[in-house]
Write a structure and sequence with these properties.
The chain has 178 residues and is an alpha+beta fold. The protein has helices at 9-85, 90-101, 129-141, and strands spanning 109-115, 119-126, 145-155, 161-169. The protein folds into two domains: 10-85; 90-169, General secretion pathway protein M, EpsM (Gyrase A, domain 2, 2-Layer Sandwich), CATH 3.30.1360. It is 57% helix and 20% strand. Strand 3 (145-155) and strand 4 (161-169) form a beta hairpin. It is rod-shaped, with a radius of gyration of 46 Å. The model is unreliable at 172-178 (pLDDT under 50). This is PilN protein. The chain crosses the membrane at residues 22-43.
Length: 178
């Protein structure tokens, strides 16, 4: 029988060393692969979050734009209505100005006068009841006024009588002094 004698033990050590290096390289490769995958995952999560935020911002801006568009269209309609309401002849304007000049205000004052297509809104105050009564009678006795409504009447702390009238005037938007 032959005895087995290893004459080259360094070869076994070399193979074992190569195996350890191979296992070390594989574990290093998988560690690097794991770190890369985590980095890509974090990058993807960050991009997804940014995309979500941008989409939310886009939807908010879209809603705001729609809201502004509605407001602009409402303002345009309001402007068109105001434009239509302000189409009053110069004769009518002269009549109203002379009518206002004859309004029996002694101590009181008009604070607002709004002239529209078929209506007038007067806001003001009188010093006493007698002055208010004369203003009211003047309005009621004017021939081209069809209807007058006292929409507000109050006494302030300093004794002034605050009033508001809504007045309907003229036929087909025309006032006359008949």
């Amino acid at each position: 029988m032959k005895n087995w004698i290893n004459l080259l033990p360094w070869r076994q050590q070399l193979i074992a060393q190569k195996n350890r290096k191979f296992i070390y390289k594989i574990s290093l490769f998988f560690t690097a692969l794991l770190i890369l995958e985590m980095g890509i995952s974090l990058f993807h999560g960050n991009l997804t979050r940014q995309l979500s935020e941008k989409q939310q911002q886009f939807y908010r801006q879209q809603d705001e734009f729609a809201k502004l568009t509605r407001q602009v269209s409402q303002l345009r309609r309001s402007y068109e209505q105001t434009e239509e309401q302000n189409l009053i002849s110069s004769d009518s304007v002269s009549l109203f100005l002379s009518w206002l000049a004859r309004l029996p205000l002694n101590e009181g004052e008009l604070t607002e006068f709004l002239l529209q297509q078929n209506s007038i809104h007067l806001h003001g105050y009188a010093e006493n009841q007698q002055e208010f009564d004369s203003i009211h009678q003047y309005i009621v006795q004017t021939e081209w006024i069809y209807e007058s409504k006292l929409t507000h009447f109050s006494t302030s702390a300093n004794g002034l009588l605050a009033f508001s009238f809504a007045i309907e005037w003229g036929r087909n938007g025309k006032a006359s002094m008949d």
